Amino acid sequence: MLKFDVVIIGGGITGTAIARELSKFDLKAALLEANMDIASGTTKGNGGVIHSGYDPNPSTMKAKVNCKGALMYPKLAKELGFEYKNTGSMVVGFEDKDTEVLNKLYENGKKNGVPGLRIIERDEIFKIEPRVNRAAKYALYAPTAGIADPFEVAIAFAENASENDVKIYRNQKVVGITKNDEFFNITTQNREYQARFIVNAAGVYGDYIAKLVGIEDYEIKPRFGELLVMDKAIGFELNTVLFPLPGNRTKGIVVIPTVHGNIIVGSTARMTEDKEDISVTKEGIEELLNGAKHLVPDIEKRFLIRQFAGLRPVETNTNDFVIEASKKVKGFINAIGIQSPGVASAPAIAEMVRDILSNEGLDLKEKKSFNPYRTPILDFSELTDEEKDELIRKKPSYGRVICRCETVTEGEILSAINRPVGAVTVDGVKRRTRAGMGRCQGGFCQHRIVSILSRELGIPKDEVLLENEKSKLIFGKMKGQEESRE
Ligand SMILES: Cc1cc2nc3c(=O)[nH]c(=O)nc-3n(C[C@H](O)[C@H](O)[C@H](O)COP(=O)(O)OP(=O)(O)OC[C@H]3O[C@@H](n4cnc5c(N)ncnc54)[C@H](O)[C@@H]3O)c2cc1C
């Protein structure tokens, strides 16, 4: 049996941020993730906006962590080497009466401690973002908002936690938990773990994990949301994140620049019962494009290259984040119901969980050897020609371009596979390197990535998976087919 002080259940952005925070201390911690890779739940399917924090009601848990989390991003990005852009954001109003809503958001934001909020008018709006609908009249400008790739952030947290001795176990689905006076015994499909403390960060399954220890207080239902990715060929980038006036329960259809130069449009919102179904719809495309064109008329359907979806884990009793120690089961901490803005809030949630653990009796002694820095995967496309030449001379694998759309080399893919918490699936390679994220969406490079994974992991090609055991890519040879030339 593997023994730990703390076991975190769930390897999304919430669980990995907590793992990284705990890696600063002298203790034994582990993270258990059910899927083949971390960041493969809701964390892979969202808009990546680091919301500034004007939106949540000041009395909520969301308000406590959103603004604080967003302000932690610039430093974290430097330490962990992930891409982050402080783009700011605008909530755009088109009529005089919209100033009422904008003023309310402004006041709300001030109460939440969001710095620098301002209501601005036409000249300044178009100066910040020339592509906004010319009918725009007013906007709430939030200078501290930003953008990041949520899975890149979670992977960076996990890698840094792992380098600082937190054990990250994937393919470990928690199916049972028992407790005696001192320890929890945690059972997965094939192993047992022992821990003094459990942190439940299991996303849409947060209520299931709580029920395993007899806590029936929570009900998590998914709020399904779809998003679109526009091709870089659209010919322009956006400087800032653009919101319409918010709806009753959501922030409306938002137009979002990405750190890599695409535009994302998101998100729809619909409550569902199904905790697995992220299949996208035709109606979603229309709803999203209509919303996007209202804010940025130049967005056109023909530049759409991908549609994807995610499930916001909504705790239905509170419609709020639940970040607390259980009063019923000593040592069991919940970080669940982390619907939007969970990406923005994750760093602050991690600090809050750290403090809760300390209050519950976990001894937090700072670890002298803690290294806050992570070296990211080198981005070959960013190098100068001279640097490229020199690298290829030293490591010829950087001379083989595998993904042509995003210019990703074999060297980068090897690095993605052979690092701590490395990629083991085709989607894992994609989230770490962007191979397959471009215009052809993997049409050119997918089979080449399968070959590299097969070679590096020492498994036959037909055992290389897209994402999980349900997404087999190769079923056998076609009649007359010769060995692949790769
Ligand atoms: C459409 C959409 C748009 C969004 N846009 C934004 C945005 O722009 N900005 C923002 O801040 N937030 C946004 N969000 C919210 C954000 O995505 C979530 O708040 C965040 O990803 C939640 O992370 P998590 O780690 O709590 O959950 P998850 O990422 O779902 O992680 C939970 C993990 O637990 C694992 N797990 C479950 N059961 C078990 C088990 N039994 N054993 C072991 N592991 C288990 C899962 O496999 C999963 O990996 C959006 C969400 C959606 C759906």
From TrEMBL:
SUPFAM superfamilies: FAD-linked reductases, C-terminal domain, FAD/NAD(P)-binding domain. Residues 5-355 form the FAD dependent oxidoreductase domain. Gene3D superfamilies: BFD-like [2Fe-2S]-binding domain, D-Amino Acid Oxidase, subunit A, domain 2, FAD/NAD(P)-binding domain. Residues 401-454 form the BFD-like [2Fe-2S]-binding domain. InterPro entries: BFD-like_2Fe2S-bd_dom, BFD-like_2Fe2S-bd_dom_sf, FAD-dep_OxRdtase, FAD/NAD-bd_sf, G3P_Oxidase/Oxidoreductase. Coiled coil: none annotated. PANTHER family: GLYCEROL 3-PHOSPHATE OXIDASE (PTHR42720:SF1), GLYCEROL-3-PHOSPHATE DEHYDROGENASE (PTHR42720). This is Glycerol-3-phosphate dehydrogenase.
